[in-house]
Amino acid sequence: MSKLKTIYICSNCGANSPKWMGKCPSCNEWNSYVEEVIARDEPSTKNEWKELAAGSTKPQSTILEEIQIEQMDRIRTGDPELDRALGGGLVRGSVTLLAGQPGIGKSTLLLQMALSALVDKVLYVSGEESEQQIKLRAERLQKGQKNCYLYAESRILFILAEAERLKPGLIIIDSVQTLITDELESAPGSISQIRECSHQIIRYAKEHGIPVFLIGHINKEGDIAGPKLLEHMVDTVLQFEGDRLYAYRMLRTLKNRFGSTDEMSLYEMQSTGMRPITNPSELLLSQHEEKLSGSAIAASMEGQRPLLIEAQALVGSAVYATPQRVANGFDSKRMSLLLAVLEKRCGFFFGQQDVFLNMAGGIRINDPALDLAVVAALISSLEDNALHRQICFAGEIGLSGEIRAVSKIEQRVQEAMRLGFKAICISKYNLKGWDPQKYKIKIVPLATLNELYEKVFSK
Question: The domain 80-278 is classified under which CATH number: 3.20.20.140, 3.40.30.10, 3.40.50.300, 3.40.50.11270?
Answer without folding.
Answer: 3.40.50.300
